[in-house]
Amino acid sequence: MTATVNSPAVLASRPPVVVPASAPPLGLGTAVRHALVMASRNLRKLRGDPGQLLDATVMPIVFTLAFVYVFGGAIAGDTGSYIEYFMPGIMALTVTIVSRTTGVGLAVDFGTGIVDRFRSLPVARSAVLAGRIISDAVRMTIAQFVILAFAVLIGFRVHTGPLELLAAIGLLVGFGVALSCVSAVIGLTARSLPTVDTIATLWMVPLQFGSSMFVPVETMPGWLQAFVKVNPMTLVVDACRGLLSGGEVAGPALGASIWIVGAVAVFGPIAVLRYRVKR
Amino acid sequence: MNAAVQVDDLTKRFGGTPALRGVNLAVAPGEILGLLGPNGAGKTTLVRILSTLDTADSGTARVYGYDLVRDAHQVRALIGLTGQFAAVDKDLSGLDNLEIIGRLLGLSRRDAKVRAAALLERFDLVEAGRKVAGGYSGGMRRRLDLAASLVGRPTVLYLDEPTTGLDPHSRAALWDTVRQMAYDGTTVLLTTQYMDEAEALADRLVLLDGGRITAEGTTAELCARVRGRTMRIRPVDPADLPTVAATLVAAGLTGGTVVADAGQYQVPVNSDEQVTAVVWAIAACGVALAGIDTGTPSLDEAFLRLTQSEASLVAAGSEVSR
After folding, report:
1. Separation of CA B171 from chain center
2. H or E stretch at B277
3. Cβ contact B185–A45 (<8 Å)
4. Which CATH number does the domain B226-317 belong to among 3.60.110.10, 3.40.640.10, 3.30.70.100, 3.40.50.720?
5. Cβ(B5)–Cβ(B63) below 8 Å
6. How many CB pairs under 8 A join A and B?
7. Which CATH superfamily is domain B5-217 in?
8. What is the pLDDT of residues A122-147, one digit of tens each?
9. Which pTM does this prediction carry?
């Protein structure tokens, strides 16, 4: 071996060791800042792999084309009136699709070992989870504007005002955050990445199809109508229809809000607990 | 002098399996401690506990006096960790990887960029800095991982098998970095399975086996604990092995073993007189020899003898060429 640090001469010549000062404690402000840095980390990944934005942009456009031009005539008589009916639905569907990323992203982070790095740093424990949900909410917001722009291109018009439009997007993203909490629990519980992906997609299928998203509720059998009417998806979509095209808003919006608050209150803490124990 | 890392009677079980069974350890400030041990010895478990990623079942551990559990936040402010698997974001550039950590550690956007650029330069990653880490070679990823653990200028650095899978050039470069850091006052706890790495870097070695510390000392001290040499006698015809064995036992040289796979007989010798006696005895019995040699214990052999059971020692001994 070459001259190593083992030799007494080298040991003696080392500079004196300075005992480090203590670190400032973590406050709420720091925790918020850490979550935002973590969210910006997730969003920066879109630069390295823009394909991660396909689910929020191309997918809803493809669904819109398929539903409006394939089923539209059959469901609503003509494609023009179906666009009017369907747009709030596809906006909500987009939010559900993007919510999958919360669970998948967390599972990926645990899989690569990067979470260990963050946990070994003096960083708020909440940062990874909160950052994930924030960045997915941002993606959901981007997705809303993309799909709206496309919808306008094929003939959709907002018949109310900009405030109503913003309220609709706010409600949709709020609903998305609630879905993300559930998705997070799945991502932090299921064993492997493919399982997370499947479950995070599958659990929403009854919500998506058992709703007023694609077709009017009146044609469904009575027992199904009972489910559809309390389905948060229906409530969110109906509220958005009211907000974008005129019609009842207060009833469905209230129901949707209760669902959103309830889901966050239940699944948020479960996700936090799962995050704490997951290795 | 207070220890940089002080570990007292640490135990940890996973399910029913004990991973650590009462580990005591002290690392002096500025020291490089080599933690050696076979797979499953508990090295990674110990490092994970010392990094606050896991908690021990009993016992205490402190970093500069801060308790691992009670003062976890203070401990995290002092330590850096480079794990066995490079923990970098594949979809982010090298620069972004480091900048994000700087931002998490409270640096301003500008300072985080400056720090990231300096580390990229130090680890020879400037050209690759703007490319996503997913496209890096194994060596580059390791260097980025190490750079990431240094963003916060840790006082204590844990390196968990840092050179596994690296080519010789990258290993040497990483060794230089570790030496420089130790010289600058960073305390380093290094786990490794490579004896040459431990020999090259560590001021002191600790052998962890089956969740316990089984030996401790400098390289020279550990080698001295495994006294004596081994002679290997290989007859042309392996059928002569029993004759060789009987001859040596008759000559008073006991403790030998037949290594059938290698077609050789191994016998420990403690002095030059015994070496000579072996040669005379074999010459007198008339067995034709293909080879005979004497090996002094390397750190490899010391490691094997101090950590492994007799059976696996013999099996491994046949692979040690010296």
Report:
1. 14
2. helix B272-285
3. no
4. 3.30.70.100
5. yes
6. 129
7. P-loop containing nucleotide triphosphate hydrolases (3.40.50.300)
8. 999 899 999 999 999 999 999 999 99
9. 0.81
